[in-house]
Design goal:
The chain has 596 residues and is of the alpha+beta class. The chain folds into 3 domains: 3-83; 116-184, no CATH class; 194-593, 8 Propeller (Methanol Dehydrogenase, Chain A). It is 17% helix and 29% strand. The protein contains 11 helices and 32 strands. A 5-stranded antiparallel beta sheet has the order 1-3-32-31-30, with helices on one face. Strands 2-27-28-29 form a 4-stranded mixed beta sheet, with no helix packed on it. It has a 4-stranded antiparallel beta sheet with strand order 4-5-6-7, with no helix packed on it. The two termini are 43 Å apart.
Length: 596
């Protein structure tokens, strides 16, 4: 591996999820341009080279704002390479973004189509099978749903003929949709009756309130007791939801496909809206717009705690002067509670009383961590930071983070969630990165990271001291169960998932798969890796193929899986599928069992 590639790996190790994927793509574009022009991506690069690359992005027809976005990872790459001493000067720090030679068309407001309950695959019309596996657009959904007006009405949805007309779909589908009354979900102002639906039979303790399940990102729901290994053979497909397509004319990326489930209600981001539906019936409870101008501030995160729905909105249109917001809604009605204007909340985590998030004032300036009161949005404290080393997590009321010491060395530190006071520090290598921790309900407290050699280590989150260092484990930490740590292992040709003992880091089992897992959900003794994995028994590593979810996840390439109160929810792009143990409605077929 070359020095440039090592620097890229070191830079990307600080990020996770969608940010990691975006920055990896941007660096691949930079590396490809350098290779095409006979340049080393790191060594010998001058400011003129960077500006030529910026000009080439404009020549490809990208808007100025998109060029700035494409340079985020490149600027960060050189910045950290300079900090690590790999280069003597940062060639990107003074490079200016040349104006695109292509004229920019004025942006216009595009209404986003309404969404609602997705019909069962067996009831989508005569030509659904041929397009089902690949079609994701609203037009395709309308074609599938032709002839199924009664199903939409039973879902509690109402048509929105005028809104559909404004999207100028092809005449044949337009006529069919108008005649059959196919779209939409009620807004916050029209869903007052639906919001009174009873959810008393649901246990809040078994909810899945945010991405990663908890503030530590453990991906483990310890309160779930229904979907045990023995019960999964009775798991059946119940219903699905379809989020609105994101307008490709917008410069910013679409919102993440994550969903959360709390007290029998599923919340998800849908284009420029956040929606709430009752899981047991599919009835839409409310739908609230995130920002008055669609596409200007796309959503980047979602969490539900303490009766509040929190959504982070970012800004991809300005690299030097970005803006962002945190917006809180009432979880029962969708009413807007408060809005906290700040620089982008790229990632945040939420408890019942506080919200912690990272902000940034652009690539030129200092990022930091902010903690605010969840009830009012009022700032409690903030701490500037020079560098970051991993996702924002909270373990044992401590926020682990990194900074630069007086001598320029990288320092890992722990900050008290209540005050921001630094409770411990330790000098680390530039390749050091925090990964995950255990959840608030665990008896023991562990914080996991990668050390200078890339090996997984366990730390005491309250002291920063090393508990153990795994012998040869260098994979990604996917989730933290009660007694086991689940990580990627194997290699690119033979990917696998492994379980490590939380006590000493010893490998307990290894199970091979078709693809390298990128996420897991852990509950009731079962691990749900994704994509293209069946469930796995947490204790033994045995695969559980005998379930509707196993077939569906394998066929649909699930992005994320959540488990809440006997419901298993899978997201795959714009599709959200719900599985449960009760028998499905008459005539339904699990997604993975569709005819092709």
């Amino acid at each position: 591996m070359s020095t440039a590639q090592l620097a890229a790996v070191s830079f990307l190790a600080r990020y996770a999820g969608r940010t990691h994927a975006l920055y990896a793509f941007q660096l691949r574009e930079w590396f490809a341009w350098c290779e095409a022009n006979g340049l080393d991506p790191l060594t010998g690069i001058q400011r003129a080279h960077v500006e030529l690359y910026i000009r080439s992005l404009g020549d490809r027809g990208l808007r100025d704002s998109s060029v700035n976005t494409m340079m985020h990872a490149v600027r960060g790459y050189f910045r950290f390479a300079h900090i690590d001493g790999l280069i003597t000067a940062d060639p990107a720090v003074t490079a200016t973004s040349a104006a695109s030679p292509h004229p920019q068309e004025p942006r216009t407001k595009h209404d986003q189509p309404r969404t609602g309950v997705r019909l069962h695959p067996s009831r989508r019309g005569p030509f659904s099978a041929a397009v089902d596996s690949k079609c994701r657009s609203t037009i395709c959904e309308l074609a599938r749903n032709a002839g199924s007006r009664s199903s939409m009405e039973r879902s509690g949805l109402r048509s929105s003929r005028s809104r559909f007309m404004r999207h100028r779909y092809p005449p044949l589908l337009l006529v069919a949709a108008v005649l059959l009354g196919l779209l939409s979900a009620p807004t916050a102002s029209t869903a007052s009756t639906a919001s009174t639906a009873s959810t008393a039979s649901w246990n809040s303790a078994s909810s899945w309130p945010m991405a990663g399940h908890d503030a530590a990102g453990s991906n483990f729901n310890p309160a779930e007791s229904t979907l045990t290994p023995g019960a999964l053979s009775r798991l059946t497909y119940e219903r699905g939801f379809v989020t609105a397509p994101y307008n490709p004319a917008f410069d910013c990326p679409p919102p993440p496909s994550d969903a959360v489930a709390v007290d029998g209600v599923i919340y998800y981001l849908s284009a420029d809206y956040v929606e709430a539906h009752q899981i047991s019936t599919g009835v839409a409870l409310w739908r609230s717009q995130l920002w008055p101008r669609p596409g200007e501030h796309p959503a980047t995160g979602l969490a539900v705690k303490g009766g509040r729905v929190l959504v982070s909105l970012s800004d991809c249109l300005s690299n030097s002067d970005p803006t962002g917001f945190l917006v809180a809604f009432d979880a029962r009605t969708g009413t807007r509670l408060w809005q906290n204007a700040d620089v982008p909340a790229d990632t945040f985590t939420m408890s019942a009383s506080t919200v912690a998030y990272r902000h940034s004032t652009g690539v030129c300036c200092t990022p930091g961590v902010v903690v605010i009161d969840a009830a009012s949005g009022r700032e409690e404290w903030r701490a500037d930071e020079t560098v970051t080393c991993g996702p924002l997590i909270v373990v044992a009321e401590v926020i682990p983070d990194c900074d630069l010491g007086a001598n320029g060395r990288l320092i890992a530190k722990g900050m008290a969630l209540s005050s921001g006071r630094i409770v411990w520090t330790r000098t680390v290598d530039s390749r050091f990165a925090f990964t995950r921790g255990d959840g608030d309900t665990h008896a023991g407290k562990d914080l996991y990271a990668r050390d200078y050699s890339g090996r997984i280590i366990a730390l005491n989150p309250t002291t920063g001291r090393t508990k153990w260092r795994a012998a040869n484990e260098t994979g990604d930490v996917l989730g933290v169960g009660a007694a086991r740590l689940f990580v990627t292992c194997g290699n690119a040709e033979a990917p696998a998932i492994c379980a490590l003992s939380r006590a000493d880091g010893r490998r307990l089992w290894e199970t091979p798969g078709v693809t390298a897992p990128t996420a897991v959900a852990i509950a009731a003794g079962v691990v749900y890796p994704s994509p293209k994995w069946p469930p796995v028994v947490a204790e033994t590593g045995d695969l559980l193929w005998e379930s509707a979810y196993a077939a569906s996840a394998y066929a649909a390439s699930a992005d994320n899986v959540i488990v809440a109160r006997g419901k298993l929810i899978m997201t795959a792009g714009r599709i959200i599928d719900v599985f449960g143990l009760q028998p499905p409605s008459r005539g339904t077929v699990p997604l993975g069992h569709q005819a092709t």
